[in-house]
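Saturday, quiet lab. Running sequence design on the structure tokens for the scaffold JK sent over.
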């Protein structure tokens, strides 16, 4: 259980990241979902395409000897791009009343469990706020 909720505090222990806050110190707690960026794969694609066009237009290579290495490079780029099934990167973030923000990257497999724990925290926080106003 990465997120442990006690009656007056919340503890988070995930891999090497640990933090602990009192209930009243937490301003916001939630999950962030960011789309993966493929700068390396896109840059490699542009570089291979540039080299292939250069060989095609400005070199004396006969019989298209540059095509096979270019196709192999494209194959490796496609494998690198689509070999990873995780399309998104997930973070747990907490903002406190002292204007500090902590982001912790989590694995996609742990997202459901941590999401349920955050939901239970939000339910408990809602019940506490109702008891204060009643």
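Result came back. Writing it out in full:
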């Amino acid at each position: 259980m990465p997120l442990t909720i006690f009656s007056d505090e919340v503890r988070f222990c995930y891999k090497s990241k640990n933090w602990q806050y009192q209930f009243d110190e937490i301003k916001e707690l939630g999950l962030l979902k960011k789309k993966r960026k493929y700068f390396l794969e896109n840059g490699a694609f542009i570089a291979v395409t540039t080299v292939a066009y250069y060989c095609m237009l400005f070199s004396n290579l006969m019989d298209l000897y540059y095509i096979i290495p270019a196709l192999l490079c494209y194959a490796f780029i496609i494998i690198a791009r689509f070999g990873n099934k995780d399309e998104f990167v997930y973070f747990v973030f907490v903002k406190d009343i002292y204007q500090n923000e902590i982001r912790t990257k989590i694995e996609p497999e742990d997202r459901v469990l941590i999401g349920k724990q955050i939901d239970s925290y939000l339910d408990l926080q809602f019940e506490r706020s109702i008891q204060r106003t009643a």
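Notes for JK: Residues 3-35+91-133 form a domain with the PH-domain like fold (CATH 2.30.29). The two ends are 32 Å apart (CA to CA). Ask whether to fix the surface positions before the next round.
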